[in-house]
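INFO batch 0412 | record 1 of 1 | parsing
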Amino acid sequence: MLSAETFSNTRIFMFAVTGLACLSYAIMALMTGNPEPFSGWIPGGLGIMSGVVLWATGAVAGDANTERAMDEGYYADSARAQQIAFWVAIFMYPAFSVPLALDLIDLAVVFPAMGTLTGATFLLLFVWFDLRGRM
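INFO prediction complete | emitting tokens
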């Protein structure tokens, strides 16, 4: 049986890997002007894999340890990450509208970049807040 700490560490690792893949996809799309700088299945596949790994880890850890890992710190970090990620997603529209209007970026590149940036924002902020809380 895995401990609550192991479950929390697994969650942070999977969120970090998935968030970094999303961020890499967005940055590479914007820098290369290619809407698919690497397979679009990688960020989504990592998200699905993260869900499966966390589900399996939770099953092995048991209900009690999973509930311990989902303590008030988890909910506070998640809420803070959601609040900031919401506003980042909202502000991406005006931020990308200027380069779009000036034809500096192609519309086909902006949508995948914004989509993966939205996911990366929440995931990486959650990781940041959780790791800060452990120090």
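INFO post-check: Helices lie at 4-32, 41-69, 72-101, 107-134.
INFO record closed
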